[in-house]
Specification:
four-stranded mixed β-sheet; alpha/beta; about 450 residues; binds zinc ion
């Protein structure tokens, strides 16, 4: 109890935490507004951001001028689509010009490798972390998790891990967090983390989707039943149905997946009904195909505009994911719009020689009953080549490889693709530390 009181005190004393409380109150109210009211709020925030970017960010002033636009010309969402998209390459090439001239001081540079492994640098201003924390507070409350509840993290990114200083250790202790490094996780480390959690009894578990799944698999296979959680929060990469099922059964609680990135911050999260609600009061989302908004049910490229990072605005940023809208009202009653499905990263989509696309999930559906495979990865180095890596489990035989080959050929039909299969004892994470089911070097054009 003392920790909780100290934590509350810290939230009032630290300016950053205090700002977060202010934002938190705003977001709590917003979620129950109607869709129209929320769209109005989003549009007002967007307009303000565009005015600021034009007045203070050299990159945008130039970019607006190149296409003959001023913020006054942007009166509707259709006008907003006239602003050219921002790519990762744009950020790499124009990092300095993307910084707002009136925000140059006091910003934190964050580098992210994304799933491609090529780093980009993004600056976050003083409002970024408070707003991010407020967004997390809102979505965790959907599952009964309150600020100050005990959190077990399975995370790997060095910049996010608590620093080795006394102040960082104090804050981690006050926030009641325990961390397991997801990038260097052996059976022994998972076992000792699990034993610590049995003793400590966290309220919730947060981590990379596949890392949490691997941990749940360990906990389940070692019959460790004494970890009682309110909820499990997963992020970074697709949470596949079999992973969700394993995690929910192991910890006997609901899993909620959230969607965001280090460049943009929080974007969306699942509510208690499993709908992926977009925090449209924090980040504006568009889904496009051929440069135009998709129609209902259509899959397209996800393009985002975070509404709070004035220090380095990212306007219509191509985050590299593909998805579609969920237009049904959610039984939870929140007015926040929703994504139907995030089908994957653009670099996880396999483009067949005929021009058709294959999403990662399809391989799961054809291989999920092959129990002799622990994990697998499909990589497309060129348009006519597919390499499948299988991690051997109990009972793995030559016939397992033959079966995977036969099913893959059947899935591909008449497509002229050469399929090669390699069996290994362990599949390492990708360069970004995430476990992706499919990766492709063939670019997708939307
Ligand atoms: Zn909902």
């Amino acid at each position: 109890m003392m920790y909780r009181q100290l934590y509350r005190l810290m939230r009032i004393i630290r300016p950053r935490e205090f700002r977060s409380l202010k934002y938190s109150r705003e977001l709590e109210r917003n979620q129950w507004l109607s869709r129209d009211e929320l769209e109005h709020i989003e549009w007002q925030k967007l307009k303000k951001l565009l005015d600021h970017a034009y007045a203070n960010v050299p990159f945008y002033r130039q970019r607006f001028q190149q296409v003959g636009l001023t913020p006054a010309d942007i009166q509707t969402k259709k006008d907003f689509c006239r602003i050219p998209l921002l790519s990762k390459d744009d950020i790499r090439a124009h990092e300095d010009e993307l910084i707002a001239q009136n925000y140059a001081e006091g910003m934190k540079r964050d580098t992210t490798s994304g799933s491609t492994g090529i780093p980009i640098g993004v600056y976050h201003d003083h409002n970024y972390v408070p707003m991010e924390n407020a967004a997390f507070t809102r979505l965790r409350r959907w599952f009964g998790v309150e600020p100050g509840d005990k959190a077990a993290w399975i995370w790997g990114r060095r910049d996010d891990l608590p620093a080795d200083t006394w102040s960082a250790r104090l804050i981690t202790a006050l926030k009641r967090e325990r961390w397991l490094n997801a990038f260097r996780v052996s059976d022994e480390e998972m076992q000792s983390f699990a034993e610590m959690l049995v003793e400590w009894q966290p309220d919730y578990l947060v981590g990379y989707a596949t890392s949490v799944y691997l941990f749940a698999r360990h906990v389940s296979s070692h019959h460790i039943a004494e970890i009682h959680l309110k909820a499990v929060e997963t992020t970074a990469g697709t949470l596949w149905p079999h992973e969700r099922q394993m995690i929910e059964e192991t910890f006997d609680c609901q899993v909620f997946d959230r969607y965001g990135s280090h460049e943009t911050g929080h974007i969306a999260a699942e509510c208690e009904y499993g709908r992926m609600h977009i925090a449209c009061d924090v980040c504006c989302v568009q889904i496009l195909t051929g440069g135009k908004p998709v129609s209902e049910g259509e899959v397209g490229e996800i393009v985002v505009t975070p509404l709070y990072n004035y220090g380095m605005p990212l306007i219509r940023y191509r985050i590299g994911d593909v998805g579609s809208w969920d237009t049904q009202a959610c039984p939870c009653g929140r007015g926040l719009p929703a994504l139907h499905e995030i089908v994957g990263r653009t670099n996880s989509i396999i483009t067949l020689p005929s021009g058709k696309y294959l999403y990662g999930g399809i391989f799961l559906t054809i291989l999920e009953d092959v129990l002799e495979i622990q994990q697998f990865r499909v990589h497309q180095p060129t348009k006519n080549k597919l390499e499948i890596l299988l991690e051997k489990g109990d009972g793995f035989r030559q016939e397992t490889i033959d079966l995977v080959h036969e099913r893959t050929i059947k899935l591909l039909g008449d497509e002229p693709i050469n399929v090669s299969i390699l069996a290994t004892n362990e599949i390492p994470p990708t360069v970004s530390g995430k476990y992706l089911v499919t990766t492709s070097d063939v670019p997708v054009e939307f």
